[in-house]
Amino acid sequence: xxxxxxxxxxxxxxxxxxxTITIVAVSSITFAYYYFNKDFGTHDFTTSVNTIKxxxxxxxxxxxxxxxxxxxxxxxxxxxxxMMSIKRHLTFAVMPFLTYSAADASNAHKxxxxxxxxxxxxxxxxxxxWVGPRPILANMKNDEIxxxxxxxxxxxxxxxxxxxxxxxxAANEEHVISSILDIIKEKNLYFVDSRAEDHPIAKKxxxxxxxxxxxxxxxxxxxxxxxxxxxxxxxxxxxxxxRGEAVAIGHVGTEGGKPTADAISEMLSEFDDKNIQxxxxxxxxx
Length: 286
Fold this sequence. Notes:
Blueprint: H1 2-36, H2 44-57, E1 64-73, H3 80-83, E2 91-94, H4 101-110, E3 114-121, H5 128-131, H6 142-155, E4 159-166, H7 174-186, E5 190-193, H8 202-209, E6 213-215, E7 218-219, H9 226-243, E8 245-251, H10 258-273, E9 276-279
Parallel strand pairs: 1-2, 1-8, 1-9, 2-3, 3-4, 4-5, 5-6, 7-8
């Protein structure tokens, strides 16, 4: 009888051990199954996995930065009010030594736009009167070029860089561009080569000297109808998306004015839909 009772105790103990092992094994298998099963119902873990899978499966949205420079502030008033009503980042290039030069620069800065100097350089087959007062000529000495450049920055408040007005002759001369870039570097500013000359050289000289310099990619207007300007804006946007950034140049006054401002305004929603961001030139490097 004593032996029988002992056997019963051993059997009960063995059963408890077996039952415990079985419960642990089943629980482990169940947990493992649900842990790795992709159809785990509404569990938080599955929600996270599904969310990650959805995010990965979404195509990456390509972004592009487009800097639009508007030349010829300081003189002709056509389109200035319309251009200064566009609530986006635009860079305004102001010609120095003119009646409205300082006023346009100050007003643009006050309204939140970026200001640069629209530096007048001698052009081929064009009278100097078209270039503006105190133009930089191809045959000038370095010191004279530097002095005009310094005076231009003094005349245009809030300027953070410069580009070229006309210049198809003088901008081909290495000593001219080098003298201008000496001042740009001294002031720690940037330069934009409008690329109106036959053989643009500013970018290479600037790169060799460690000066921030951008090339113009697209001219928007040039006394053209709005339909043409819209096409050019789309072209600039496509370059920005493909390359990551682009620089386009338009005008106030007779070369552009209200049609250019209207075209830019009309394109804003399309730029937003395509994830093209209008930026200041200074924001291209950020």
